[in-house]
Every structure is written in structure tokens, then in C-alpha cells.
Specification:
two-stranded antiparallel ribbon, about 15% strand, single chain, about 350 residues, alpha/beta
Amino acid sequence: MSNSTNEAIATVGLGAGGPEVGVQGLGCMGMSWGYGPTHDEAEARATLERALELGVTLFDTADVYGFGRNEEFISPFVRAHRDRITLATKFAIERDESDPFGNQRIRNDRPYIRQAIEGSLRRLAVDHVDLYYMHRRNPEVPLEESVGAMAELVAEGKVKHLGLSEVTAKELRAAHAVHPIAAVQSEWSLFSRDVEGGGANSVAATAAELGVALVPYSPLGRGFLTGSFVQAEQELSEGDFRRLQPRFTGDNAATNAALLEPIRKIAEARGATLAQIALAWVQQQAQVYGLAVVPIPGTRTRARIEQNTGATRIELSADELAALEPIAEQVAGARYADMSATSAGRE
């Protein structure tokens, strides 16, 4: 029993005035980039279709994923179901294709933003994007300039709604004052709870105050919370960027694997998977903070999308939540080797 079903998931508004989407979305990056080779492209495409059947309507990509190839990969699916889905993509990160996981440059300037949206529209073969995120913030570029340029794209009909990724509460307020922000995409999971920090000035609390949705990426800790890894460095293939992530390397991996025991106990008692319990915890933060929370776990298989959406029907008890509470404080290793481009790196 894995709490999977053919029943469509519930829906929620993505920010004030934003689109109505399923309470769980799908991160598409791993279908063509980032987690090693895509072994079965046909299965990945079938997963997109199955997700939509189950009520997943927010599909997330970015221009940097595979240097545009991820946008091209999902384009046929997007065009086939354009009226039924909410398409999200992102701009801001430039990398050298010869060193795909190496140093990155963050671009938030107006000319680049206009260049980026034209490239995404071309690769996706659509005339507009439903949700356009600033993928990372370059503090050297005035936020008003960047969000102003994004707002121009809304006025021109190329973008319907605006989003930000990995921003501080102060940056969210400043951006929202220029143009309404529908969603903030930040890492949020049992392993990563930076968005909760700062009391009333936390990103989560600020988003709730402003009526902005939170879209947690990596809600399964880049797969670690599924229980798939024991000796992560040996188990990850070449071309998998997690081989470079602190939480997957050295003694950190073994330490973090041991932290899954409370999740495993709850999963076993409920006849669920570890991933379902971890996702249920993220989704339940919507009640804690009083805002829309739409996690975007990534997967390449239909079986996993069925399990993941099953998590939307699990409500954890107070005792279960208490058992999960200490995990994040014990996690070994930073989220990224270089935290300078994240909200936590600027606060």
C-alpha cells in the first residue's frame, strides 16, 4: 500500500490572482539533465501525461537545464495540453556547456531578461509563459530594474505571472512593491528549512502576508529523503550533479542516511513510502503558515508520480510532526557547495 490512487489531486490558487494549479507540481529538470542520463525517454514522456491525468498542472523547467534542452524536451507535451497546464520556466543563470556544473554567472539585467524570454518562448514553441521566475538574484543589479523588466513582459503578453527563486524576505517585499509576485520558489524539505528562519521576516511568513505562494523545489532533498542512498558517492552516476553536493559526499552521506529513521517508522506504520511522508510534511506547512504551498518533486517514472501525488492525501498527526521536527537541525553539509547565490547566503 503506497497511498497512490487514480483520484485527481486538489487544487489551490498560485498567489493572489494567480492561476489555479494542482497542490503538487512536477519538476521536469531531471527528465533530460542534472541527475545523470535519462535511461528511458519514452517513460519520461509518459510520466508527463500521467501527471496531468492525476491533476498535476504546474510543470517547471528553466533555460539553464541542459542549456535549453529541457525546455525543448517538454515542448511537445506543453503544446499538446497548452490550455490545461501552467507552464513555469526561469532565467538568470549562465553556465559554460563544457563545464555544466562549474562556475555560474548570474544575469538580472534588462537586456538579458528580454533575450532570455525570447529564447525560452522559441524552445518551448509557445507564445507566452504562465509563470516566469528570476532563477537567482544578482544583488549588484537593482531589483527594481529586474522586476520592472519582467513586468514589461507581462504587459506585452509574453508572461502571465511573475515569480522569484531563492530570495530573502526583504527582496520579496521590494519586488512585490514593483509588480505582484505570484510565487517564490525556494528549497524546502525536512532537510532544508531556511525559508522558515527569521521569525516574522521569514520568507514563508512574508509570502503568507503578501498572498504569495511558495513552490518548494527539491522537497525530497534531491532524492535523499526517498531512502535511496546509503553510500551516495558510489551510487550516483557520472553526470549527476549531486556528486558535487556536500550532503551527498564523504561522511555527510552516512550521517544524513541515519536521519531517515523517524520518517521510515512513520511510513511503515502508515503503509506509505518515505517520499510520501516527506512530501506530506512539506504540503502540511500550508496549514502552519496559512499560504499556498505547491512542491515540485521531480521524477522520470509513472510509478513515482503516482506515489508522489498520493502524498497529498496524507495528513500527519501532531505526534508524527513532532517526531520529524528535529531532522533539519542534524543534517550534515550545506545545501550547495557555494551558497552565495541563495537567500541563505545573503541573509
